[in-house]
């Protein structure tokens, strides 16, 4: 068995040879002439001259290996429906959708914006774009009109693919009025809008612009659309970052590098095998959904589950039921989803047959130790924390059991992934730091295959945003703090703008949060640094309780506040103790489940919270204000 460090070293030092080997995992219609062109740093072009297609690799290529095997499994607990598409059926659907898009004038390089709930036609649309060489831009379904309008103006799509409505926790969200409003607001309206009418919410089509998906599907059923072979560096999609720290950035992804990176990650990191089933609980509107609901599993010949619903409806056992029903071997979720489950009956974890499941992967935000321990003990399966960003497209740090199985450590996303020359550096000097020293997590370019090629339409912003933050050294900054312990395990300590400076002590908000969360009554928390005339900054904690009804009275609340402070004192020292611990029903989060710290800080300091377009529930901020 290979050794992790030696594989990683080879991927950096014998880069061309390493990726030449990995590239064999996908189909190349025309072989590439050069593995990497890095003559114009920091822009990297992978597999130069090679021609391939994401749709071909995800769909067509697997037909001969078993056309009747499952490819896409749709489960909706919102509309109470389940449907399994075989590889052949997926092929037919994707071709019909490609034919309808082609008839709308969509061709190579054109953008198609996809504003859809978690339903199969959304996946058909993504794959159909890939088939045509068109660039998709999936916008999280249910985003407000302003978000949508700014993304329309940035991507300038020829066609928008949408639906009448989505549904969440049994509540219908009409999409059509949001979309109409967005098109009204934007400066670059699309030529046409294809609407999948699910019959959830009645609407009036706009004459001359809106077309009906079902009608088109019938009209184009049975047509086969030839695959458009794309040069490896041609963009496959544009996806906006989550907007946790500010204005979202349009991440541009290539074609060939992405296909190779995903194919290799399915083997080395996820250990998924053709014919098995993958369950990823993310949304197609996020990068995790792009890479590990749609492209990754399909490129690896796996069936993938598209789940429309929440983790707690009809009850907190639904995800485990899916694992049982579809014999899921690999599952991918986010800490935010597991924290929700923590509030449910733990017996639900034991109710289903989970013998098929090998491991649960988690990413998107720090996986705190109490949550990790809870789920790992509950499932009795390995929990694999992995760290990455919309920008990188696939994990930067992860356990890689497909290369060499190693024990994991709670709170650590393990080790650098091959291809990523990742370092912890001093933000002032740009120097590499040693073991146990905190610094910025940075990647020495070139970024590996699959990572972003540039900011859509703005090369300057790409260089300025990501490669210009450290004086004198052109490295890609993740804008996250990290450290490597004496055993080589990596830890992510929070975002670079989440460090608090209390009377000259630099404290990571994440460490304080972990400490607050370790109190048995706390489900989750957010710690922020608030300006203070005496100390510069003080830490303020907002905590959500597992059983708020047990702490209704003011006395109970202040007793608990003192208890939690004592926990922080004993774990991190009095300097890290939050000046206040306030109890709220929910934290303000982005739609992707990340805590909006900048907005919390602004509210605490009595300032305007700024851009709130990506917030999930504005009433959480209101409640926070009232608690203060
Ligand atoms: P924006 O860049 O628009 O502010 P965002 O950074 O939240 O939004 P994403 O690309 O979805 O957008 O999230 C990537 C970030 O999520 C990482 O930079 C890191 O801060 C955090 N993250 C992801 N996975 C992990 C993990 N396993 N452990 C700790 N943090 C993680
Ligand atoms: Mg980010």
Q: How would you characterize this protein structure?
A:
Belongs to the ATP-dependent AMP-binding enzyme family. The chain has 628 residues and is an alpha/beta fold. It has a domain at 503-627: ANL, C-terminal domain (GMP Synthetase, Chain A, domain 3, 2-Layer Sandwich). Helices cover 30% and strands 25% of the residues. The mean pLDDT is 94.
How would you sum up this structure in a few lines?
The chain has a domain at 503-627: GMP Synthetase, Chain A, domain 3 (2-Layer Sandwich).
- Residue windows where pLDDT falls under 50 for at least 5 positions: none
Number of E-state strands: 32
CATH superfamily of the domain at 503-627: ANL, C-terminal domain
| Helix percentage | 25-40%
At CATH level 3, the topology of the domain at 503-627 is: GMP Synthetase, Chain A, domain 3
Radius of gyration: 24 Å
The spatial strand order of the largest sheet comes to 5-4-17-16-18-19-20
Strand content: 15-25%
Helix- and strand-based class?
alpha/beta
* Backbone shape: globular
CATH class of the domain at 503-627: Alpha Beta
The CATH architecture assignment of the domain at 503-627 turns out to be 2-Layer Sandwich
Task: List descriptors.
alpha/beta, 32 strands, 628 residues, five-stranded parallel β-sheet, binds magnesium ion, globular, GMP Synthetase, Chain A, domain 3, binds adenosine-5'-triphosphate, Propion_PrpE, seven-stranded mixed β-sheet
């Amino acid at each position: 068995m290979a050794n992790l460090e030696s594989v990683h070293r080879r991927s950096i030092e014998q880069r061309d040879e390493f990726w030449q080997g990995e590239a064999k995992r996908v189909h190349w219609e025309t072989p590439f002439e050069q593995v990497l062109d890095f003559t114009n740093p920091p822009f990297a072009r992978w597999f130069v001259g090679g021609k391939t297609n994401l749709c071909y690799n995800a769909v067509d290529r697997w037909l001969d290996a078993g056309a009747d095997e499952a490819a896409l499994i749709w489960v909706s607990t919102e509309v109470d429906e389940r449907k399994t598409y075989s590889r052949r059926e997926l092929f037919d659907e994707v071709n019909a959708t490609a034919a309808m898009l082609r008839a709308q004038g969509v061709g190579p390089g054109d953008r198609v914006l996809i504003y859809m709930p978690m339903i199969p036609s959304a996946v058909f649309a993504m794959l159909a774009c890939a088939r045509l060489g068109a660039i998709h831009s999936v916008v999280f379904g249910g985003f407000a009109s302003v978000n949508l309008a700014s993304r329309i103006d940035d991507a300038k799509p020829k066609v928008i693919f949408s639906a009448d409505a989505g549904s969440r926790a049994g509540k219908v969200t009409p999409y059509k009025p949001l979309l109409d409003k967005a098109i009204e607001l934007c400066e670059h309206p699309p030529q046409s809008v294809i609407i999948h009418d699910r019959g959830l919410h009645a609407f009036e089509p706009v004459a001359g612009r809106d077309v009906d998906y079902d009608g088109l599907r019938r009209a184009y059923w049975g047509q086969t659309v030839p695959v458009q072979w794309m040069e490896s560096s041609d963009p496959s999609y544009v996806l906006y970052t989550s907007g946790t720290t500010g204005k979202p950035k349009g991440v541009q992804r290539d074609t060939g590098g992405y296909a190779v990176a995903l194919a290799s990650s399915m083997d080395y990191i996820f250990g998924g095998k053709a014919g098995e089933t993958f369950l990823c609980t993310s949304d197609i509107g996020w990068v995790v959904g792009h890479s590990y609901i749609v492209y990754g599993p399909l490129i690896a010949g796996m069936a993938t589950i598209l789940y429309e619903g929440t983790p707690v409806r009809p009850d907190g056992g639904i995800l485990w039921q899916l694992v049982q029903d579809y014999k899921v071997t690999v599952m991918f979720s986010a800490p935010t989803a597991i924290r929700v489950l923590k509030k449910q009956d733990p017996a639900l974890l034991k109710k289903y047959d989970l013998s098929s499941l090998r491991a649960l992967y988690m990413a998107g935000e720090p996986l705190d130790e109490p949550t990790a321990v809870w789920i790992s003990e509950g499932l009795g399966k390995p929990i694999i924390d992995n760290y990455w960003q919309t920008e990188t497209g696939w994990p930067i740090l992860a356990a890689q059991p497909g290369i060499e199985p190693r024990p994991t450590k709670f709170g650590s996303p393990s080790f650098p992934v091959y291809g990523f020359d990742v370092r912890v550096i001093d933000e002032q000097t740009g120097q590499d730091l040693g073991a146990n020293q905190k610094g910025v997590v940075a990647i020495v370019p070139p970024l590996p295959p699959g990572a972003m090629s540039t900011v859509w339409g703005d090369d300057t912003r790409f260089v300025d945003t990501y490669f210009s933050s450290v004086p004198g050294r052109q490295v890609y900054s993740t804008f996250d703090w990290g450290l490597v312990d004496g055993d080589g395990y990596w830890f992510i300590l929070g975002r670079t703008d989440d460090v608090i400076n209390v009377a000259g002590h630099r404290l990571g908000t994440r460490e304080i949060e972990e400490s607050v969360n370790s109190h048995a009554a706390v489900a989750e928390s957010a710690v922020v640094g608030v300006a203070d005339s005496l100390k510069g900054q003080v830490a303020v904690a907002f905590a959500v309780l597992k059983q708020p009804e047990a702490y209704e009275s003011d006395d109970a609340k202040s007793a608990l506040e003192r208890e939690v402070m004592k926990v922080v004192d004993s774990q991190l020292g009095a300097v890290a103790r939050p000046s206040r611990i306030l109890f709220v029903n929910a934290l303000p989060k982005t739609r992707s489940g990340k805590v909006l710290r900048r907005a919390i800080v602004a509210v605490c300091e009595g300032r305007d919270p700024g851009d709130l377009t990506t917030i999930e529930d504005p009433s959480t901020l209101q409640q926070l204000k009232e608690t203060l």
